[in-house]
Amino acid sequence: MNTEITSLLEKYEERILGQSLNVRLLVSAVLAGGHVLLEGVPGTGKTQMVRTLAELLGGSFNRIQFTPDLLPSDITGSTIYNLKESQFQTIKGPIFTNILLADEINRTPAKTQAALLEAMEEKQVTIQGETYHLPDVFFVVATQNPIEFEGTYPLPEAQQDRFLFKLHIDFPSFTDEKNVLKSVIENSFTETPVSKVLDLPSFAAIRKEIERVTVSDSVLDYIMQIVRKTRETESIRFSASTRAAISIGKAAKAWAYLSGREYEIPDDIKVIAKPALRHRIQLSPHVELEGAAVDQIIEELVGSVPVPR
């Protein structure tokens, strides 16, 4: 594994306490070229997690605070008439960046949420009929509060499917939370700047290395059996698509690379399955009434598929 990535992970885990698995999954998703949805109650450090990653990776970073009155043009940009020069001028929005933090994305209605769709999938934006390409390195990390909280709008299924992962940010352990409290009180947590570990050319080179991670036919079969199992169980109302299988395969490559291997193994798939599937499937009504959680169903489903040897 690249020494710069090793250094990045070490500094990231030093900065974001109690979220080791989520930190590694977030880095894996970014290296795989995917977008990430972070869900957790307010005050669990979601924004800090994304801002720190942006600082470590280098490149440009913008943050959009989503609100009920936010317009699509506030994200993508707009065209105005310049009276001084007597011509129309395109003002590009904050989406033109390398890393975009869409903060509390479910605080805004579906029409504005959908403004991200074209950008996330096609890496381009249309402003007044003109198409503008986004940077080659472009990632969206969106945060959201659980939908049962007041003043939130559930993300449409098509929007959720554009995210490679959905990560749950839970409260840290007692010790980790105490260390965060201590650091903030001593002004050593928020005021110390994070120096970047990577630049964009180095990042692109690592992406090329990840592409060379091999996937055997047996592992591909394992991925497909898991995805197709979601279509055969009565516990799941809406199953995973082909895009879900592609997402698992791509993300597992990055996870294998971070684990110091040049090939995928079934254990990589087991780690990736939950964050890659939890936002892409919907449980049957009777299962939800029984109080079953999506992660529990995914875990049982993955456990029922024979592991290749």
Description:
The protein is globular, with a radius of gyration of 20 Å. Helix 1 packs antiparallel against helix 3, helix 2 crosses helix 11 and helix 11 crosses helix 12. The mean pLDDT is 87. The protein has 14 helices and 11 strands. Strand 3 and strand 4 form a beta hairpin. The protein is 45% helix and 16% strand. Strands 2-5-8-1-9 form a 5-stranded parallel beta sheet. The protein has 2 domains: 183 residues, Rossmann fold, CATH 3.40.50; 92 residues, Magnesium chelatase subunit I, C-Terminal domain (Helicase, Ruva Protein, domain 3, Orthogonal Bundle). It is of the alpha/beta class.
Mean pLDDT: 87
Count of helical segments? 14
Overall form: globular
The percent of residues in helical segments reads 40-55%
Largest sheet: 5 strands, parallel
Brief characterization of the structure:
The protein has 309 residues and is α/β, with parallel strands linked by helices.
List the helices and strands and how they pair.
Layout: H1 3-15, H2 20-31, E1 36-39, H3 46-57, E2 61-65, H4 72-76, E3 77-82, E4 87-92, E5 99-103, H5 110-113, H6 115-122, E6 124-127, E7 130-133, E8 139-144, H7 157-160, E9 165-168, H8 174-185, H9 200-211, H10 217-229, E10 236-238, H11 242-258, H12 266-277, E11 282-283, H13 285-289, H14 294-303
Parallel strand pairs: 1-8, 1-9, 2-5, 5-8
Antiparallel strand pairs: 3-4, 6-7, 10-11
Helix pairs in contact: 1-3, 2-11, 10-11, 11-12, 12-14
